[in-house]
């Protein structure tokens, strides 16, 4: 029994396609070598043309057609059930953003790890807040693209308890390789206890919640460490050298600079960092949210 209900079908399709490919690799290579030996100029100095062989033409049309249809059959047999979701499946919303996965359960409860009960159907509703991502759980043999503005889904039944990798398989920026987490498969009783204990609302400062919501902490740390860009810790009130229209100048990071950086990120680039990495948050972060972000940044010295 596989880790999910889709393992056997996907693995069978892979084995069939791989087996056919391997057979023809060996067969074509053998025939090619035999032809090179048998019809070399030394052994066969006069070339001959073979044409109008109906049996040969029918053979090399019919056999590939049968093999392609066979591969299609096993592929479709593995894929088709993945789009038919049981009505009693547990709904979980998956939010992909640079560069973190967030799993939202009923009641608005959120977790950085996907926790599911054993032998229960689970439906993952996929959403992206920025660019295209792709949710992949290798052990379950399931993968779907997470596209901004498009509703997509995947479902599965976890059949073995344990911990499994969750990855992103579409290059989504500099820290794409860090966009990974885990799926934990537990008993139904353990799942219910975990879900009940999961806090409904975050007790973190509102400004930090907004920063995490918009994936800002994927590039800017809050503990002083360097990731992709400057750390939020001690940033407010700090003097920095920035590049503006190709010229270097000194600025003080204040409220106006933070607003400008969020709404027009390429206007003033801190020296030593690249242009074009950060997207504009104009229309995504409101003035009220901006105030909460600034108030939070003032507190982390």
Can you offer a commentary on this structure?
- This protein is an alpha+beta fold and 301 residues long.
- It folds into three domains: 7-83, Helix Hairpins, CATH 1.10.287; 90-197, Immunoglobulin-like (Sandwich); 206-299, Cytochrome c-like domain (Cytochrome Bc1 Complex, Chain D, domain 2).
- The chain has helices at 7-38, 54-79, 188-197, 206-213, 255-263, 287-299, and strands spanning 90-97, 100-104, 110-111, 114-117, 121-128, 133-137, 142-146, 152-157, 162-168, 181-186, 239-244, 247-252, 269-270.
- The strands form three sheets. The chain has a five-stranded mixed sheet with strand order 3-2-1-5-8, with no helix packed on it.
- A hairpin with a 2-residue loop joins strand 11 (239-244) and strand 12.
- Helix 1 (7-38) packs antiparallel against helix 2 (54-79) and helix 4 (206-213) crosses helix 6 (287-299).
- It is flat and about 85 Å long.
CATH superfamily of the largest domain: Cupredoxins -  blue copper proteins
Q: Which CATH top level class of the largest domain fits? A: Mainly Beta
Strand content: 15-25%
CATH architecture of the largest domain: Sandwich
> Numbering strands along the chain, what is their spatial order in the largest sheet?
3-2-1-5-8
Mind telling me the C-alpha Rg?
28 Å
* Secondary structure: helix percent: 25-40%
For the biggest sheet, the summary is: 5 strands, mixed
Class of secondary structure makeup:
alpha+beta
- Distance from N terminus to C terminus (CA atoms, Å) equals 53 Å
List the domain count as a whole number. 3
Average pLDDT: 87
């Amino acid at each position: 029994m596989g880790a999910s209900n889709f393992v056997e079908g996907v693995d069978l399709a892979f084995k069939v396609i791989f087996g056919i490919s391997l057979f023809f690799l060996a067969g074509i290579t053998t025939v090619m070598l035999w032809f090179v030996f048998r019809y070399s100029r030394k052994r066969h100095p006069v070339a001959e043309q073979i044409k109008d062989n109906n049996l040969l033409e029918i053979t090399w049309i019919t056999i590939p057609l049968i093999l392609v249809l066979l591969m299609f059959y096993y592929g479709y047999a593995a894929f088709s059930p993945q789009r038919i979701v049981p009505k009693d499946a547990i709904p979980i919303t998956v939010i992909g953003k640079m560069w973190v996965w967030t799993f939202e359960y009923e009641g608005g409860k959120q977790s950085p790890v996907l926790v599911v009960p054993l032998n229960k159907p689970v439906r993952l509703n996929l959403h992206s807040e920025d660019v295209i991502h792709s949710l992949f759980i290798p052990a379950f043999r399931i993968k779907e693209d997470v596209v901004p503005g498009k509703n997509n889904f995947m479902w599965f039944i976890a059949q073995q308890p344990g911990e499994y990798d969750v990855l992103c398989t579409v290059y989504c920026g500099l820290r794409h390789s860090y966009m990974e987490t885990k799926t934990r498969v537990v008993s139904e009783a353990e799942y219910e206890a975990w879900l009940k204990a999961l806090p409904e609302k975050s007790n973190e400062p509102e400004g930090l919640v907004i920063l995490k919501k918009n994936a800002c902490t994927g590039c800017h740390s809050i503990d002083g460490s360097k990731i992709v860009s400057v750390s939020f810790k001690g940033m407010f009130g700090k003097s920095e050298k920035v590049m503006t229209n190709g010229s270097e100048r000194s600025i003080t990071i204040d409220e106006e600079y933070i607003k400008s950086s969020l709404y027009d990120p390429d206007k003033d680039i801190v020296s030593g960092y690249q242009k074009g990495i950060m997207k504009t948050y104009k229309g995504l972060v409101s003035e009220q949210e901006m105030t909460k972000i600034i108030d939070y940044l003032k507190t982390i010295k």
